[in-house]
Specification:
- A seven-stranded parallel sheet has the order 3-2-1-4-5-6-7, sandwiched between helices.
- The longest helix has about 35 residues, at about 245-275.
- Helix 2 (about 40-50) links the parallel strand 2 and strand 3.
- It has two domains: about 5-240, 3-Layer(aba) Sandwich (Rossmann fold), CATH 3.40.50; about 240-280.
- The protein is built from nine helices and seven strands.
- It has about 290 residues and is of the alpha/beta class.
- Bound molecules: NADP nicotinamide-adenine-dinucleotide phosphate.
- NADP nicotinamide-adenine-dinucleotide phosphate binds near residues 11 and 92.
Amino acid sequence: MTKQQKIAWITGASSGLGAATALRLVKEGWVIAATARSADKIEVLIHHVEIFGGGGRIVNYPGDVTDAGQMQEIVARIEAELGPIDLALLNAGTYLPDTVETFAAAHLQTQYETNVIGTAHCLEPVLKLFRARNKGHIAIVSSVAGYRGLPRSLSYGSSKAALINLAEALAIELRGSKIKVQVVCPGFIKTPLTDKNDFYMPMLMDVDKAAEELVRGLNGGFFEISFPWIFSLLTKLVDLLPDRLYIWTIGKIKEKQWSMKNEQDRGSDSDSASADQSGDGPAKAA
Ligand SMILES: NC(=O)c1ccc[n+]([C@@H]2O[C@H](COP(=O)([O-])OP(=O)(O)OC[C@H]3O[C@@H](n4cnc5c(N)ncnc54)[C@H](OP(=O)(O)O)[C@@H]3O)[C@@H](O)[C@H]2O)c1
């Protein structure tokens, strides 16, 4: 293969943002080394590229980011089989909503193991290679949820805050080198990760549009890539509030959302109750 084709390692490439970004980069001629646990879903992407074409291709390197040895081996195989990695998009992540009622250390551990330690497992081998050749591009996918504390996000938000801090420290350490470091902080994107949310997600973004913004950001010169930009700007403005005012404001928004949700639930309960009485619906268990 010619080294004109750039090589990107994308973790979490089997669905959502990772998959959409892989397909977008393929259109631009990139070769994508795709990693996720679901090898079958990556195969579907590979077939998609075979059918619809594009200048590049996707190669399947399935693995679990929580396994350090697997990540070392995958990076070594990509370099041997495809060539030097130009871009490492460390995107694999998981989200389990938790509140004070549902908080459990095990929840936090699962999310930290994937989001933080998993990212570190991927970062270590690429950082070693990039430093040896003084060249490379690392983009770590965090979230606007990592800026400041948010409701229903006790574990997830703090894991993403760790990634923002990690990326910043990396960028400082690598300043003056030819290794580019970026952090990606998306707002809400419609993916399997957010499909589990039962609350209103402001400015929910289509995943293809999000991938387009992400690729534009990767080609740009800013440290942080955040989208949609209006949501990102509003979040940053709210984040400037002093602690007490921030906690009060977000607390009020949370209360409002809960009361709206409760009203909706009551509405659907009374709808189904009247349907039951009229004999239109299935009878409710006592
Ligand atoms: N959707 C949003 O609104 C949003 C907002 C901000 C940030 N983000 C971040 O964007 C990234 C992508 O999320 P998404 O929304 O696209 O969700 P998604 O569709 O659920 O994708 C998550 C990806 O991570 C992979 N993954 C999860 N655990 C893994 C593990 N242990 N080893 C290897 N791969 C693993 C999944 O593949 P397998 O299950 O096949 O392993 C999947 O490919 C995440 O880091 C997420 O936190 C998302």
